DNA sequence: GTCCAAAAGTCTGGAATCAGACCATTGAGG
DNA sequence: CCTCAATGGTCTGATTCCAGACTTTTGGAC
């Protein structure tokens, strides 16, 4: 075995970007040498696979009690060999995220529930990923989610799309406390996915991921939920209205709120 | 050798995303299984490295006549072994993009100049990457660049940052025809890089990349340049003004124009 | 002309990854 | 109870990728 994961250490922050701590107005070359000559791959296949699966689990794409797709299929979808996938699954199993059962109707069952946050978790999470990376992630998320909302609001929506968006909105509003974060994620990702651009969807998923651990480390409070509900409604309304500017403004406001909340808990 | 590249075939489009052709309002699961269970890696290290270097060359990050960093340094920066890097360099050399000289003051010199487009190039480029991927790329670019502009306009800019932005703007305006695309790229990327978020910068670079081949396949016409100049000025002004909405609107308009231009040449 | 430093070029053993065949376990349905 | 299909578990040989040591070429400095 090559790696051990404990829930406390498992993180989706990924390897640090070398340029992450570059000064804010660094004198980059004529164009982005910094962004282009970055690492080709974030780690070896095993590590990246563990990250990916952990993402799917933590974001609730595969909720508690459900199982991952069969190994063969999953390996194909992830574009890796079954051997590598199995190593990743084993690591997650040993870390307590998965329960693997064999035989027909067997599979890798998710046994993860978002832990209720304890004091100090946030500090630790931030320390683990680095302050610069936190700012980076928040900025990135702001940009891609605003952009996605704008795009979607600009699009002519089909009735089907409108329904999906509305459904996700009520999904968050009706969510049980334990399910809140999961439904919140579902709502945010729906915006990106409905845009019809896989690249954009992937970027939003990635952005959200980078802050999941942090959000999981702060309690879900009633007033925050209510505040968020209003903002979510505003976002959905602006999109359904076909008002790009309003959609963006609403998303920006919402994310600003989340970021402020995080910074508040850190101060 | 594992691969051969000819200038005619070389492309930065990369492997197709399996979900690229998914229906616009496909019934995705409760959350984006589609975006999360996507391939972990886009290809093998060699292929990805070739793409990356080709990007740096085509985007003009390393302009004609300049050389890439020394192999050892570059390999470290790209996070790959020197052997793999060398294979990629050799492929690009054989394809005529690089001239490799040894000895002190040697190195891998870029000999690429953006080819003047010929009729049919665009059609071929689109065929190569696929219509769905084209829409995906355009959407993605719209989202991330709009988002980046918004973020930057929201930021309190240092004098240094303001200067950089202004410099890049005049860079495009004063560019010789042969340098136009390069300077245009530099301007667009500057917006993302000035945001201080490496993730965002990388996303914008990636987005731009996915349409470079297409843009290179259409002629640079005087009226288009003039039109673009006005829009670039509007973007810079809105950012310097600290007006997020205006900044975004300006970027959206500009990119819409580019997209329309592309579609026009395709029709 | 000699020396030297910086660069590309070469070689080797080992680790990671893959594709694919095959085995073992399980629960549902006949 | 037996069979079967779906699933995880295991093995093997080939390929890719790596780290690092070593060699060769080149042009400037003295």
Keywords:
homodimer, 267 residues, mainly alpha, Arc Repressor Mutant, subunit A, Four Helix Bundle (Hemerythrin (Met), subunit A), 2 domains, DNA-binding
What does this structure look like?
The structure is a homodimer of 267-residue chains. With 267 residues, chain A is mostly helical. In chain A, strand 1 and strand 2 form a beta hairpin. Chain A has eleven helices and two strands, in the order H-H-H-H-E-E-H-H-H-H-H-H-H. The first copy, chain A, is globular. Mean pLDDT of chain A is 85; it is low at 6-32. Chain A has a two-stranded antiparallel ribbon. The first copy, chain A, has two domains: 42-110, Arc Repressor Mutant, subunit A (Orthogonal Bundle); 121-266, GntR ligand-binding domain-like (Four Helix Bundle (Hemerythrin (Met), subunit A)). The first copy, chain A, binds a DNA duplex (30 and 30 nucleotides) through residues 2, 44-46, 70-72, 80-84, 86, 89, 100-108.
SSE arrangement:
Two copies of one chain form a homodimer.
Chain A lengths: L32 H4 L8 H14 L12 H8 L3 H13 L3 E4 L5 E4 L10 H9 L1 H24 L4 H15 L6 H15 L3 H19 L5 H20 L2 H23 L1
Antiparallel strand pairs in A: 1-2
Helix pairs in contact in A: 2-4, 3-4, 5-9, 6-8, 6-9, 6-10, 6-11, 7-8, 7-10, 8-9, 10-11
The structure holds a DNA duplex (30 and 30 nucleotides).
Categorize the overall geometry of chain A. Answer: globular
CATH class of the largest domain in chain A: Mainly Alpha
Strand content of chain A: under 5%
Please report the total strand number of chain A as a whole number: 2
- Radius of gyration of chain A in whole Å, from Cα? 19 Å
Structurally, the number of domains of chain A stands at: 2
**From N to C, what is the helix and strand string of chain A?**
HHHHEEHHHHHHH
Arrangement of strands in the largest sheet of chain A: 1-2
* Number of H- or I-type helical stretches of chain A: 11
Given helix and strand content, the structural type of chain A is mainly alpha
Regions of chain A with pLDDT < 50 over 5+ consecutive residues?
A: 6-32
